[in-house]
Amino acid sequence: MAEPYVDIIRINQIVVIESLGPHDRKLARDMALDVNFEIAEQPIKASFELCDGVKSFQRHIAELVARTTANRALPLLHIECHGDEDEGLVFTDSSTLPWVDLWDLLRPLNIAMKNRLVVVLATCVSFSSITSVSLTCPAPCFFLIAPTKRVWPDELYSAFKEFYSLLSLGDAEKAMTTLVNRQYQEGKMLPVSAGEWFSALMTSFLNDYADKKGLRAAALDLATRAKADGLTHFDLRYWKRHIKSTLPNRLNGYFNTFFMLDKFPRDRPRFSREQEQLDRMIAKLGYPPSKR
Fold first, then answer.
1. pTM of the predicted protein model
2. 199, part of any domain
3. In sequence order, what DSSP letters do the residues of the chain get, joined into one string?
């Protein structure tokens, strides 16, 4: 089985946090009646936690971090509520949690799980949340599954019922492929791994920073700040050379932080493919190789 699916089948519990109105269909609760929650013949405990607003949600996540740390659990987190592309998660009391705050909240959980957290967002337009993550912070989860557009309860129920049924057979790759290939009224259900996430963020960073125009803008910014500090004898060419000489190690620093390799150095082989991809990006720019 291909990475990152190997890590997905290692989960040993499913935690559902639900914040829905009285007339909304409770998808996960319905699925619990129809799906045998086990993975590769190992029973999986499913828990359901009701949440009415941001504070309640924050409390549930903090408690989950504590339980995960104490019990070395590997939960899959299934979040079921309404979503808004601009406002983030929308709870039953109409309070909202911006996407960037969601990822900040989940990051300690992913750290507690050594970058193995799987998050399912059964919320409208929640795939757009991936743009709210920074290269300079650890990944908020190892794997995310979310819809790109508005979704309807019945189609979500059918999609996730099939997903969890296949996952129970230990075939995470087929579960994911089937989920992606289903037809929805709008958009798609998409998965993204931490590796794919990092690649997209790094590509965007390099497009904005490392081409000639971006390099000049970055050098000008450094020169301006240096001048403000009284360092006036360095010209723009010096700062361009400085950026080129330090950028590879800076990018590798982002890599180590995002994949938590500074915290868990033994996990480096898990992300060897992503490291090779980063090395190719650096080489394509004509920069010297970075230090590990």
1. 0.86
2. no
3. --TTHHHHTT--EEEEEEE--TTS--HHHHHHHHS--EETTEE-EEEEEE--SHHHHHHHHHHHHHHHHHHT--EEEEEEEEEETTTEEE-TTS-EE-HHHHHHHHHHHHHHTTS--EEEEESTTGGGGGGG--TTS--S-SEEEEESS---HHHHHHHHHHHHHHHHTT-HHHHHHHHHHS--SSS-EEEEEHHHHHHHHHHHHHHHHTSHHHHHHHHHHHHHHHHHTT--S--HHHHHHHHHHHHHHHHHHHHHHHTTTTT-GGGGGGGHHHHHHHHHHHHHTTPPPPP-
